[in-house]
Amino acid sequence: MGQEPTERVANLKALAELEGYESVEALLEVAQFDCVIPGICTTAGCTYTVEVEPDQREGFCEACGTSTVQSALVLAERI
Question: DSSP character for 28?
Fold first, then answer.
């Protein structure tokens, strides 16, 4: 289930942009202190985002029907 580093970075950049953050660092700075943070589907071609728990690794994607939503902190390997 693990993603390649380039895929994680791409997903983090997309998540930061879709959520309106200036950078991945800005997203992660805010996320580290919240109990619900942005997550993104990691299925290729899907850009579904949703608020998730910080340790979410297999959240359900309502757009593509898979359990591939991961939190920003999981993608950044901070959890």
Answer: H
In the chain, the amino acid numbered 61 is C
- State which amino acid sits at residue 55: D
Q: In sequence order, which residues have a C-beta less than 8 Å from that of residue 20 and are 6 or more positions away?
A: none
Q: Residue-wise over 44-69: b if at least 16 C-beta within 10 A, else e? A: eebebbbebbbebbebebeeeeeebb
What's the token pair of residue 51?
Answer: 């608020």
pTM given for the model: 0.89
**Confidence tier at 5 by pLDDT (50, 70, 90):** confident
- The reported pLDDT for the residue numbered 49 is 96
Domain count across the chain: 1
Place of tokens 């943070």: 37
